[in-house]
Amino acid sequence: MPITFLHSLNISCNLGAGVDNLQFNYIQASMKYLSFRWSDLDPNFHLRHSCYYDLATQERVEKLHEHGITIDTMKSENVGPVLFKEQCEFRREIHLNSKIYLTTKLLKMKKDCSFWIIQHEFLSDEGQLHALISVEGSWIDTIKRRIARPVPEVIVSGMDAILKTEDFEYV
Fold first, then answer.
1. pTM for the structure as a whole
2. pLDDT digits (tens, 9 = 90+) for 89-147
3. What is the CA 139 to chain-centroid distance, rounded?
4. How many CB atoms lie within 10 A of CB 124?
5. Which of 6, 51, 88, 94 is paired with 40 by a 20 to 30 Å CA distance?
6. Residue range(s) defining the domain that contains residue 137
7. CATH of the domain at 68
C-alpha cells in the first residue's frame, strides 16, 4: 500500500536552490512512496508489468477520494469512471528494493469533464523516470450505461482540483 511521501532529502537536492519551501511542500505532497512485494516480481526479478497498472489504478482512486469523488459520491450520482485507453511506457527496470515514488497528475481535460487524461510517473529517488502511464477516460452514467452528460458538478470540481502537469491543457 502506498504511503505518503515523506522522504525529502534526495528530492530537494534535485530541485535546485531557486525552489522555495512552499513549492517544495506542494511537490512533496503530490508523491507517494511505493513498496513492493515478492509476488510483484516477474521471473526476471523486476516489477511485473501488470503491477504498474495496479499501482496507478489504486493511486487514481485515492486521488479521486482525496478530492471528494468517493465511492459513495459516485453511487449517489450514478456515475463511475470509464477508461478508453491505458498505456505504459517502460523506461527503466524496477526491482524489489527500488525506492520509487508515484505521481498522479491531470494532463488534459474537457472543461465539462466529459473527457480527461491522467498521467502517472514512476520516479526514483534521483528523479529518474522508470515508467509513464497515461489513461484516457470519461464518466459513465451507471443507470443508462452511456457517457454521463452532463457530468455532475461534484465530479467536475473534484477533477479540476487534481494536480495538473506543467503542460496541462483544456481540450
1. 0.81
2. 999 999 999 999 999 999 999 999 999 999 999 999 899 999 999 999 999 999 999 99
3. 17
4. 15
5. 6
6. 3-170
7. 3.10.129.10
